[in-house]
Amino acid sequence: MRISANPLRGQQFPAGLLLAAAAIGLLFANLPTHDAIAAVLDAHIAIPGTALDLSVHEWVADGLLAIFFLVVAIELRYELTHGELNSLHKAVQPAIAAGGGVLVPILIYLLIAGPSSPSGTLTAVGWPIPTATDIAFALGVLAMFGKGLPAAVRVFLLALAILDDIIGIVFIAVLFAHDVNWLNFALAVVAVTVFAVLSRVLAKSGSAMLAVLMGVIGVIAWGLMAVSGIHATIAGVLLGLFMSPAPAEKTRHGLEPTVNGAILPVFAFVAAFVVIPHVAPSELSPAFWAILIALPVGKIIGITLFGWLSLQLRPRGTAAALVLPDVLAAGVLGGIGFTVSLLLANLAFAGDSAVRDEAILGVLGGSLIALALSGAFVSMRARHYRMLAKAA
């Protein structure tokens, strides 16, 4: 395996940086620094002559994170066309496991914080939050503790996390659209189309001016999406999905260090900047407990159970690519929600800051539980395979 000289292109360092940024955000929110930082995050920055008037917090979540989703979409496109999901045969088993990793956390969440909970339907809207898997964190743990694991485990986890990303993107696009301005949305789609056409011309010409023009059109597409009522990060998704492969790969390679080293840590800091409520555990919102439990427990049960079922679908007489303990390892890793779960928490409870903050704490707590469990379990599986290799 080729090792990149830049740690920001690896898996371990960005995952550690992300965790550190979230920890610092949570710490600063609960120190006397809170009011000064909160004032900065709540300050609005408007673009003259446009309808764009967002707080610094919104510029981070809607603007910077759109660049992250651009990179994610480029990776998704590659995996769907040339990678681990480019055929039904490759996709069916992780797709079934990913389905379980979405359905079971939703069920657990609704059992705890659904309409029958003390807060009724007020917290039920948070059901998408525990469905996400943070691919950067999961692969970081795998790289850190999984030396000796078969390549099939990483491939399965990668495909699983990619499918989770697709589901998360669909949730963001469909569930959190509000007062949609269809004209602005149509204009955003036109801008994405122009961007896609120019990217194909760029693939042949290599013109630097054309690349700059594409950047301008991409920003316009984002702005139109932002004022359309559809979440602005969807612009990044569309731009990445429809970009020509060669320019897309250059863009991903160029943006990767910035996304890993700046954009995601800044988002983690801002998203985790919440005050820990000084209340008894029984007074915490059901959303907190639902996420705290549904992320690690729901993912483990859902991915392991449905993953095991998917292994039974292999052709008769052929060996399974994974054994059940390896599927369990993927399930434990899947409970690290983090980035997309934090975004979903902000969107689901945008109108209730108290519940939103507790939901974010639930995401952080549930992800930390999954992080600790996955580190221990992946280490055990890796040690098992290293012992087998020595005995061979």
Automatic annotation (TrEMBL):
Family: Belongs to the NhaA Na(+)/H(+) (TC 2.A.33) antiporter family.
Organism: Microbacterium suwonense
Name of the protein described by the UniProt record: Na(+)/H(+) antiporter NhaA
Entry's localization field: Cell inner membrane; Cell membrane
Secretion signal, residue range per the UniProt entry: none
Summary of the function given for this chain in its UniProt record: Na(+)/H(+) antiporter that extrudes sodium in exchange for external protons.
TM region positions: 54-74, 95-112, 124-143, 155-176, 182-199, 206-224, 230-248, 260-280, 286-309, 321-347, 359-380
InterPro entries the record matches: Na/H_antiporter_dom_sf, NhaA
Its membrane topology: Multi-pass membrane protein
The gene coding this protein: nhaA3
Ribosomal protein keyword on record: no
Keywords: Antiport, Cell membrane, Ion transport, Membrane, Sodium, Sodium transport, Transmembrane, Transmembrane helix, Transport
Reactions that this protein is recorded to catalyse: Na(+)(in) + 2 H(+)(out) = Na(+)(out) + 2 H(+)(in)
The keyword Magnesium is assigned to this record: no
